[in-house]
Write a structure and sequence with these properties.
By secondary structure, this protein is α/β, with parallel strands linked by helices. It is 47% helix and 10% strand. It has helices at 2-12, 35-48, 55-60, 66-78, 84-100, 110-119, 133-143, 166-174, 190-198, 213-218, 228-234; strands at residues 22-25, 123-127, 152-153, 183-187, 202-206, 223-225. It has a six-stranded parallel sheet with strand order 3-2-1-4-5-6, with helices on both faces. α9 links the parallel β4 and β5. It is globular. The protein binds magnesium ion. The site of magnesium ion has 9 residues, from loops.
Amino acid sequence: MLKEKINLYLEKHGLGHFCPKAVLFDMDGVLYDSMPHHAIAWQESMARFGITMTAQDAYATEGARGIDTIRHFVKLQKGEDISLADAQTMYDVKTHIFHTMPEAPIFDGVLDVMELLAHHDITINVVTGSGQRPLIDRLLRDFGRFLSKEHIVTAYDVDRGKPYPDPYLMGLRKAGDLLPWEAMVVENAPLGVQSGASADIFTIGVNSGPLPDQVLYDAGAHIVYQKMTELRVALNDLF
Ligand code: MG
């Protein structure tokens, strides 16, 4: 199944052989089961500023830079264009609430997937829309065996966040100036999938949230799994 989807992708790009050198992982909802906490933090923080955000909104906008999401909702609900600095102030409240919650667990299968990739000399990279420093530190703590700081793209590395291709293009650069077909993306959110697919990278959806699979396919996912453990099994197909 995975192999067939990869062949379709290669055909579309006029390529003959797939030899990935890097996997670019999204962070929230892919590595960490953190989205339920984010959804609560979004709702509570925005309510303090008179902005209504639902859990559904949190999932639908996941992957975008927090400040972009905030500016979008303020414009929509108050008709105001706020500055990046004001949006950052509001985002800081969201971050604060998030960090009062228990640490989100690593999804089952994540370390197994990384182990397998590392065994095949494929580098591990993270491309996140998050700008939360403590989370970056946590990445290095949890995945330091596979991941170095130079292989992490955050909200601070790009001017245009997901769904633009920029974060994943930056990911290719940080992975060693790779071409799109030398990498794979693993994403859980529609905007993130759109970002990976529009960078022309083979994009795997892992649908860990409440949205239907079709939303990820519509965003451009080449294949969709439900869990990282399922992806781990599917990767046997590749090696
Ligand atoms: Mg995500």
